[in-house]
Amino acid sequence: MTAERNLKRPKRKPAQGRKAVTDDLCQPLSISSAPNALAERIKELNCLYGISNLFENQDVSLPWIMQRAVELIPAAWQFPENACARIRLDGQEYTTRNFKTTQWHQNTKIILNGQHVGDIDVYYYKMPPRCDANPFLEEEEHLLRAIGERLSKVLWLKRSEEALRESEERYRVLTEQVDEGVALVQDNRFCYVNPAFCKLFHVSMAEDILDRRVTNLRAGNTVEIVKSYRSVDEDKSGARVEEVIQFSRSQRVAWIQVCHSPIAFKGRPALLSTFKDITEIKEQQMAAQRMADLLDSENRVLRSSLKERYRLGDILGRSAAMQGVYELILKAAATDASVAIFGESGSGKELVAHAVHNHGARKNHRFVAVNCGAVQESLFEREFFGHRKGAFSGAHADAPGYLDMADGGTLFLDEVGDLTVGMQAKLLRAIEGGGYRALGSTETKSADLRIISASNTPLEDRVNSGHMRSDFFYRVQVIQIQLPPLRQRKQDIPLLVEHFLRRIKMPAGMDRVPGPIMDTLMEYDWPGNVRELRNVLQRFVTLGHLEFLSPKKPYNSLPLPVEMDLRSATQQLERSLISKALHRTGGNRTKAAKLLGISRRALFRKLPPS
Ligand SMILES: Nc1ncnc2c1ncn2[C@@H]1O[C@H](COP(=O)(O)OP(=O)(O)OP(=O)(O)O)[C@@H](O)[C@H]1O
């Protein structure tokens, strides 16, 4: 039973072992003594309620409460004018005005969480009338204990409040200092947002969104954030949700790492969310990824160039001459220097130019190929520098020139030797810092581009003959790549044949070029190089026979060496005759056998395995 309940006993009794205060008080309550007992009871209750009221007021401090409480105590005692009181707590003393210690003393402890943390003492200044050594009533002992319990509760509440306020303050200071946005949402409404949150979502003041629904978050493109709120449930405590949200902010893509933690706030479910702007980290990550991809693809190219050695991108060839070309391409690609490629017609100069571009740093920009042989002197500016609308009759709209189109990328000048000296001067000026103007424009522009040029003949010859300015020559020919003609790398022919036939739709029943046809292809001189080979194969597949359009001799019949034995010589002669017959019949074996006067089966026996 608590002390408070004890107080509700209907009559006052003398304390155990003490002498009776008055006889009538020691007796059951009589009608005449009832008003007096009632007055006593009211005094006790006043004291207790007074103390309870003290902590109703949340804004007061603990010392204030203790001081008021101690002042309320004497009035509840039997002889208030003789009573004084003291509360000791946390090394502090709170006393009534005329406090004095005497032998007539009563005490109770203040206990907090099972610990003795303070005391309440009541003293009488002097011996109350009609009393022995212990002048206090049993009810007063109960009352004092009840006050002690009340104050313990006050203390517990105040300490909890202080701890809460302190942690709230700590949290507030923390959240106001951190760079991460913090928001507390309950019932789908914002209860708290920190300054970083406001900054992140362009909210001018926290008050603008406090108490408002999450859907009211309007600044910028925050649809994704609102969606993210919808994806979590305030009620699912412990189910933390983390995600990275991408949205556009002032024309820029931003990334925010959101973490929603369902918590209990004021005893009800709420959502505590943090928002971290990770745009910078994300951009760095993406740049690192791009770099890793680039390195990976470069490594792959290098690996393939080292290991496989039969191709580099679209360029095929396993000959030693082509290995040298691959090395030069990779070296040239690693720099931004101008490259001049030389080689006979159809030997793959444009392919090499593409390879240099594709393996270099400008690969994600344009490769603009210009056939210089087709550029007219009078149209040079218009084609290279572009024009503005109305610059000439028929200029209905602005049009970019080659330099604009190749800005950031590569300008490939095919047949560069065909540019006139005048054109060379204009181009040189435009790319050497002088800039250029589109026709009809007053604005001087400059283009950041790499020049790769190609020519069938050495450019030195053009300089010597006065057709090329030497400054232009030095500008375009920093790195030279010489492409070997196909006749000097015949071991590449089978690879090229296989490659082109894979691209051409072969007739049914033909899956490879017959051996003798291949022999013929190997023997041929290839003045038109790889392009001619491709066209010959195209015709072979379409027309069914080999046909060389070049003015040169189609093939050479090999003279038989005298030191060869008869068997080998016969075999070689046979193969040569079969090859010629097949050539004449366009690869038709039945007709070739007929031409040779042997059976088709005999022809097949004599054909080398293909
Ligand atoms: N090494 C090669 N591997 C595969 N295909 C090749 C090779 N060389 C040339 N070709 C092919 O031959 C054709 C001609 O190549 P390209 O246009 O690059 O030659 P070019 O030297 O620039 O010719 P031109 O001097 O006539 O401009 C293209 O179809 C090209 O794909």
TrEMBL record:
Residues 315-542 form the Sigma-54 factor interaction domain. GO terms for biological process: regulation of DNA-templated transcription. It holds the Pfam family PAS_8. Residues 1-21 are annotated as: Disordered. It comes from the Bacteria. SMART domains: AAA (SM00382). SUPFAM superfamilies: Homeodomain-like, P-loop containing nucleoside triphosphate hydrolases, PYP-like sensor domain (PAS domain). Keywords: ATP-binding, DNA-binding, Nucleotide-binding, Transcription, Transcription regulation. GO terms for molecular function: ATP binding; sequence-specific DNA binding. NCBIfam families: sensory_box. This is Sigma-54 factor interaction domain-containing protein.
